[in-house]
TrEMBL record:
<dbReference type="Pfam" id="PF17033">
    <property type="entry name" value="Peptidase_M99"/>
</dbReference>
<protein>
    <submittedName>
        <fullName>Carboxypeptidase controlling helical cell shape</fullName>
    </submittedName>
</protein>
<dbReference type="Pfam" id="PF17129">
    <property type="entry name" value="Peptidase_M99_C"/>
</dbReference>
<dbReference type="GO" id="GO:0004180">
    <property type="term" value="F:carboxypeptidase activity"/>
</dbReference>
<feature type="signal peptide">
    <location>
        <begin position="1"/>
        <end position="19"/>
    </location>
</feature>
<keyword id="KW-0732">Signal</keyword>
<feature type="domain" description="Metallo-carboxypeptidase C-terminal">
    <location>
        <begin position="334"/>
        <end position="428"/>
    </location>
</feature>
<feature type="domain" description="D,L-carboxypeptidase peptidase">
    <location>
        <begin position="28"/>
        <end position="260"/>
    </location>
</feature>
<keyword id="KW-0645">Protease</keyword>
<dbReference type="InterPro" id="IPR033397">
    <property type="entry name" value="Metallo_peptidase_C"/>
</dbReference>
<keyword id="KW-0378">Hydrolase</keyword>
<dbReference type="InterPro" id="IPR031489">
    <property type="entry name" value="Peptidase_M99"/>
</dbReference>
<keyword id="KW-0121">Carboxypeptidase</keyword>
Length: 445
């Protein structure tokens, strides 16, 4: 069953703030246990870490212990695909002027790290090359960071889970049983921060240590594609959770291809209290005359890396580092008098709530009540302004007006007078997915 999860602190923001704040996702297992805080996206050009954290926040279920995830700490930098818009955020945890544009975000994540409930902190990064204790070549040497677990010191005396080196070595042994190539092996990197690395003394993990919180970094190699980086991040995360005694399940296969599928499937955004809902995979570059509500735009998503950003006279839909589509809006007052429509789908009569996507083999017909007008985007017939109660087959629809690049998914829009009532998507794809949304779950509460 499709799960639609509230992305707290990201959604329902005014236009100028859409996609700019980071979100905290908290899960509490049925059984008591330690609390792990996972942070990603402190540098916006490291998609392996923040994509892995997004999967951790949305596709894992904790059974014992507690999991807190911040997958998008430096969200503006993620959207801009840059290390940092205002310098390196991971060098702002020792001293920072209140005038720094990132002061509110840094101050807030400090408070989360310092929360008495938090037992352990993990910070996810993508690093250059492959760390090796000995020099092998330009990509494999002690100056590289990729494929390593990072500690600032051997141990944190007096802290629960304070044996940093011992715990990480156990995790590394687990990860290295899952590597798909011998050259992908993980190693431990101790930066010896207090004695020899003043720059690292400004980092998030060192701040956590000074709050008596065991903290670790995970670095996967920037030489890999995003899905492979995310795979190794998740392998490391699962290793740390197992060492801490946190029990969990996930709803996808932990393989490179399983992670690749999970990063693409069922990423949704909705508008107008769920009256419009789009799956983001394979969207056209631009959707024109898109019926959005007047006033400040609000949206919901089931993924914390989705943002909708005003851009000139359009909106850009982002998913992490990727700009997926432009919405060229047509603004309407929204009509609340109708929540669903009857449709004849391949001769089967069904009630379809707005925000749904429905599979069609041959034909469909919208049977909206009297006084409601139907506009099927891509259908053209001379003199026809209302497609209500009109049978429509696939070849009558113009592929260039579909919402997807394959030319198979089309918008069916319903209007009452001059107000927009809602949208249904009809999917003529060979492997069309049916997403009938019940009225109770259409909006996120």
């Amino acid at each position: 069953m499709f799960r639609f999860i509230l992305i707290s602190l990201l959604l329902c923001l005014p236009q100028q703030l859409l996609g700019s704040d980071f979100s905290l996702h908290q899960q509490q297992g049925r059984q008591a246990g330690p609390t792990l805080l996972v942070v990603a996206g402190i540098q916006g050009d490291e998609p392996g870490g923040f994509n892995a954290a997004a999967l951790l926040a949305t596709r894992y279920q904790v059974e014992r212990g507690n999991l807190w995830v911040v997958p998008n700490l430096n969200f503006p930098s993620i959207i801009k695909r840059t290390r940092g818009l205002h310098g390196d955020m991971n060098r702002k945890f020792l001293h920072l002027s209140p005038r720094d544009p990132e002061f509110p975000a840094v101050n807030r994540i400090k408070k989360i790290i310092s929360d008495p409930s938090v037992d352990v902190v993990l910070n996810l990064h993508d690093g250059s090359g492959f760390y090796s204790p000995q020099y092998i070549d330009k990509l494999r040497n002690p100056q590289r960071w990729g494929q390593s677990c990072i500690i600032d010191q051997v141990a944190l005396p007096g802290a629960r889970f304070g044996q940093l080196e011992q715990l990480s070595q156990a995790v590394i042994a687990q990860i290295n049983q899952q590597t798909i190539d011998p050259e992908h092996l993980f190693h431990l990197k101790n930066t010896d921060t207090a004695d020899s690395d003043p720059e690292m003394q400004q980092s998030l993990t060192y701040y956590a240590l000074n709050q008596n919180k065991p903290a670790f970094g995970i670095e996967t190699s920037k030489s890999f594609p995003t899905h492979l980086r995310a795979f190794y991040h998740l392998a490391a995360l699962e290793g740390y959770m197992q060492q801490l005694g946190i029990r969990f399940s996930r709803d996808f296969q932990l393989t490179p291809q399983g992670v690749k599928r999970a990063l693409k499937e069922d990423i949704l955004v909705s508008f107008g209290d769920g009256r419009i809902r789009l799956e983001l995979h394979n969207l056209r570059q631009t959707l024109k005359y898109f019926p959005l509500p007047k006033g400040d735009l609000q949206f919901e998503s089931n993924n914390p890396l989705v943002a909708v950003i005003p851009y000139r006279n359009r909106y850009r839909i982002h998913y992490g580092n990727n700009r997926l589509s432009f919405l060229k809006p047509q603004f309407f007052d929204y009509d609340q008098s109708l929540d669903e429509v009857e449709m004849l789908i391949d001769d089967n009569l069904v009630r379809v709530p707005f925000g749904s996507r429905i599979a069609v083999n041959n034909s469909f017909q919208v049977l909206s009540p009297k006084g409601y007008r139907v506009n099927v985007i891509g259908f053209r017939k001379a003199g026809q302004r209302d497609e209500n109660r009109l049978p429509i087959i696939r070849r009558q629809l113009s592929p260039e007006h579909s919402i997807d690049k394959d030319g198979k998914i089309f918008r069916v829009e319903v209007y009452h007078d001059k107000r927009f009532s809602g949208m249904v998507l009809v999917d003529f794809g060979k492997h069309a997915k049916q997403q009938l949304v019940s009225l109770s779950e259409r909006t996120v509460n």
